[in-house]
Design a protein that fits this description.
Shape: globular
Number of helices: 10
Number of domains: 2
Largest sheet: 5 strands, mixed
Distance between the termini: 23 Å
CATH architecture of the largest domain: 3-Layer(aba) Sandwich
Number of strands: 7
């Protein structure tokens, strides 16, 4: 998906046509194989979860896919295609899709409006902490900075066995946020309520797994890594 060339001494590999990772050529092929298997497992997890999800009735979803207070990372204008992602910052599948999403945002800049909505899954101990950290950053106009930091560091804190809000406070410090305001936002019940409002909308839409995407109000079924971009391209061609 990306046109970037590998740097000297590095190796890029693709899964389902998506160039997902650059690694040192010193890394063993066994390690590469493990990473590929993890990426494949992430896609399989999404596919199985989508097939088990309750279908959304046509016309029922448009009022809750995007709210006035939904967070927009890219504003494409009046004629743009609207792409909405329900995500969990701790979800490995979301982490696997993150570089693909970033490639799409760059490639279709000015043509799509990209919206992110929180959907922390109950099986992830720190997913709610991460969502609250993102929302606290959003209150300072820094959502995208925290969004990137959370996905770029997911391997460091994801799948932990204890709640670690201090990790996310550390990210806020590194990003130069107003820490007093950040702490106040994290402690404010309204911040958690904002996250829970996204969860409620996702559940009303039949979302049961992450990432779940909607394009112009319609759910996207993921069977291949290219399905998200293919659906965006189709929507744009109909403009």
């Amino acid at each position: 998906m990306s046109n970037a060339r590998p740097t000297p001494g590095s190796l890029s590999f693709c899964v389902f046509g998506v160039c997902a990772v650059k690694i040192s050529t010193k890394v063993t092929l066994a390690t590469v194989g493990v990473v590929v298997l993890l990426l494949v497992a992430a896609l399989v997890y999404v596919l199985v979860s989508q097939r088990n999800a309750e279908p959304v009735a046509a016309g029922d979803q448009n009022s809750v896919v995007v709210r006035e207070n939904s967070h927009v990372l890219d504003e494409g204008g009046e004629d743009a295609v609207t792409v909405v992602e329900f995500l969990d910052f701790e979800c490995e599948a979301c982490g696997a899709f993150y570089p693909l999403v970033e490639d799409i945002r760059e490639k279709y800049d000015g043509q799509i409006t990209y919206v992110v909505r929180y959907f922390p899954l109950p099986g992830h101990i720190n997913s709610m902490n991460a969502a609250i950290a993102a929302e606290a950053a959003a209150q300072q106009g820094r959502l995208e900075d925290m969004y990137h930091r959370l996905f770029e560091t997911q391997a460091q804190w994801g799948e932990g066995q204890e709640s670690r809000p201090d990790i996310f406070r550390g990210f806020a410090t590194e990003l130069g946020l107003d820490i007093e305001a950040y702490d106040a936002a994290v402690a404010d019940p309204a911040t958690a309520e904002r996250v829970e409002a996204d969860i409620a909308d996702g559940e009303a839409l039949g979302v049961t797994s992450t990432p779940s995407f909607f394009i112009d109000g319609d759910p996207v079924t993921l069977e291949r890594w290219t399905d998200l971009e293919d659906n965006i391209s189709t929507a744009l061609s109909g403009r």
